[in-house]
Design brief:
about 55% helix; globular; 6 strands; alpha+beta; four-stranded mixed sheet; two-stranded antiparallel sheet; about 250 residues; binds zinc ion
Length: about 250
């Protein structure tokens, strides 16, 4: 895969959470800042809050994969890098069910985390509601801690909501190497062991290309066009490789 683990670097940050080793490659911070600059983060403090929200959210997501892998008796480790995060593990035995559960546990951990955050917001006396919205049909709203104007805490909660819910749902789309793409592959392989891999790759190419066009034309988002366009392209390249009997598609969980 084009997005495997990066080699060790001088700027790597190492720590452990719940016994699971975590490595943060310096490009993780670079990409988080660049993504923040494309949003509405005009003030430096807004940018710092955004980077914190990205760091916490991706860590929660990867820990969801890693802890689930460990519950199957496998040794996991987490890498945060320029393409987001990776949870890798040494599998002793793999079956489709466990791979689906591990893949779903990433977005699942994000949804649980944001439910906990909103429960804390609610418990601190600030109304939380689900109302009709634009980007998605419905969205979670809350009364600002800062009153009329959003303060830094409100910005943090808003960023966490956006990353964990919006990107959690995007991650479940059937596009490689997103978690949804991995889940789709397992399901296609279950129903058709011979053709399942090809079918799931074609689904990935078409969904990725469709979302790239939608992102470019409807949302006018260059980022979304490049993000899904690149995935559609790599899916197509994998399809070519797979048709020629190339290497398999195991590997770390994005
Ligand atoms: Zn994931």
């Amino acid at each position: 895969m084009l997005i495997g683990e990066p080699p060790p670097s001088q700027g790597d940050l190492h720590f452990r959470i719940l016994g699971i080793p975590v490595r943060v490659h310096p490009f993780f911070w670079v990409v988080a800042v660049l993504l923040g600059l494309t949003g509405n983060n005009e003030r430096p403090v807004q940018l710092i809050i955004w980077v914190i929200a990205v760091f916490v959210s991706i860590l929660v997501h990867e820990m969801g994969h890693a802890l689930t892998a460990r519950s199957y008796g496998w040794q996991p480790w987490v890498t945060l890098y320029g393409f987001g995060g990776l949870a890798s593990y040494h599998p002793t035995q793999q079956d489709a069910r466990s791979r689906i559960v591990i893949a779903a546990a990433g977005p699942g951990a994000g949804f649980l985390f944001i439910a906990l955050v909103m429960a804390i917001v609610h418990a601190s006396g600030h109304a939380v509601s689900i109302e009709r919205a634009n980007l998605l049909p419905y969205w979670v709203f809350f009364d600002y801690f800062g009153g009329q104007e959003a303060n830094n805490l409100d910005l943090l909660v808003s960023d966490l909501l956006y990353i964990n819910i919006f990107w959690g749902l995007v991650n479940l789309l059937p596009v490689y190497p997103l978690d949804g793409g991995q889940i789709a592959r397992e399901m296609f392989l279950q129903s058709n062991p011979q053709e399942g891999m090809k079918q799931s790759l074609w689904l990935s190419v078409l969904t990725g290309a469709g979302l790239a066009i939608f992102g470019a034309l409807t949302l006018q988002s260059l980022f979304m066009a490049l993000f899904f366009g690149y995935m559609a392209y790599t899916s197509y390249a994998m399809l070519q490789m797979y048709s020629r009997g190339g290497p398999g598609m195991g590997g770390p969980q994005w």
